[in-house]
Amino acid sequence: MTTLDRTAYPHLNKPLTERELAACYTLDDREKAFINHNARGDRGPLVLAILLKTRQQLGYFVPLTQVPVPVTRVVADTLWRSNHRVCSHEANSWTSNLEALPCLG
Q1: What are the percentages of helix, strand and coil residues in the chain, rounded to 5?
Q2: What are the angstrom distances between the C-alpha of 62 and each of 9, 66, 95, 98?
Q3: What number of other Cβ atoms are within 10 A of residue 20's Cβ?
Q4: Does residue 5 lie within any of the structural domains?
Q5: Domain range spanning residue 100?
Q6: Which of 90, 59, 61 is nearest to 75 (CA)?
Q7: Is residue 7 part of a domain?
Q8: Tens-digit pLDDT profile for the chain (105 aa)?
Q9: Residue 33 burial (CB count, 10 A)
Q10: What is the pTM of this model?
């Protein structure tokens, strides 16, 4: 059977440069407004943002546990900078403790 990295399907296991991460996973104003309007709870904005950006890049949803930490950090930093109900302490704890998110349990 062909391994995932040899298929035509996009995946997250390819290391990206900082420039590629910023280009692919930084939220624009429309996305931030969508997240602000639809996300609920303390962790909702980050979870929704990660799902939104990974779905845009891959064309399908992936479990949050499969999202690389650099991708999560770019998304969390974008949310933190835009003051979308995310403080730096929350962003740091989310990126280091993704397994604690309720949707992963």
Answers
A1: 65, 0, 35
A2: 13, 7, 16, 14
A3: 13
A4: no
A5: 16-104
A6: 90
A7: no
A8: 555 555 566 777 788 899 999 999 999 999 999 999 999 998 999 999 999 999 999 999 999 999 999 999 999 998 887 754 545 555 555 555 555 544 443
A9: 13
A10: 0.72
Residue identified by tokens 């949707």 is 103
Determine whether 25 is exposed, middle or buried from the number of CB atoms within 10 Å of its CB (0-12, 13-18, 19+): buried
Q: Which residues contact 58 (CB under 8 A, 6 or more apart)?
A: 10, 11, 12
Q: Among candidates 21, 23, 98, which has minimal Cα distance to 64?
A: 98
Tokens of 104: 């992963």
Contacts of residue 77, Cβ cutoff 8 Å, sequence gap at least 6: 91
Q: How many domains does the chain have?
A: 1
> Do the domain assignments include residue 96?
yes
- Give the whole-angstrom CA distance, residue 59 versus residue 39: 21
